[in-house]
Design a protein that fits this description.
The chain has 117 residues and is of the alpha/beta class. Helix content is 17%, strand content 43%. The protein has a four-stranded mixed β-sheet with strand order 1-4-3-2, with helices on one face. The chain has a four-stranded mixed β-sheet with strand order 5-8-7-6, with helices on one face. A hairpin with a 5-residue loop joins strand 7 and strand 8.
C-alpha cells in the first residue's frame, strides 16, 4: 500500500427524475456506452473512458459541465443533427479554445472544447 494518494477521475453526477431514461438518452444522443442502471436510483454511462453518473431526484436539477475533447468539429457534426438546443455554437476563442455548448433533455448544459494550440 502506498502512502501517496492520486485523484484518478472526477465524475459528475446529474440529478434526474428518471435515471433509466437519462442513461438511454446519453447512449442514443451522445454515443455513450458501458451503461448500467441500479434500480431506479442510480446509473452510469461512459464514452472514451469518461463517465457521467445519474442520481434519482424528485425533479431534474440541471447543472453545467465542460468536457475536453479531441476532434471537437467531428463531435459537433455527430451531435448537431440530433436536435439538441445549441446554447453556444461551435466557435474559436482568442484564448485558444474551440468549443460549443448544448442543453440536454434534462436541462444540463454540456460544453465540448478542444485546445487549438
Amino acid at each position: 500500500m502506498s502512502n501517496k494518494s492520486t485523484v484518478k477521475a472526477i465524475v459528475p453526477v446529474f440529478q434526474v427524475a428518471d435515471v433509466a431514461a437519462a442513461v438511454a438518452y446519453y447512449k442514443e444522443t451522445f454515443g455513450f456506452g458501458n451503461e448500467w442502471v441500479m434500480g431506479d436510483i442510480y446509473g452510469s454511462a461512459s464514452r472514451d473512458g469518461q463517465t457521467i453518473h445519474f442520481g434519482k431526484a424528485a425533479e431534474n436539477a440541471p447543472t453545467k459541465i465542460y468536457l475536453m475533447v479531441d476532434g471537437v468539429e467531428a463531435l459537433h457534426d455527430e451531435i448537431a443533427p440530433k436536435g439538441l438546443e445549441i446554447v453556444s455554437p461551435l466557435q474559436t476563442h482568442d484564448y485558444g479554445m474551440r468549443d460549443f455548448y448544448v442543453r440536454d433533455a434534462f436541462g444540463n448544459v454540456l460544453g465540448f472544447g478542444q485546445e487549438m494550440g
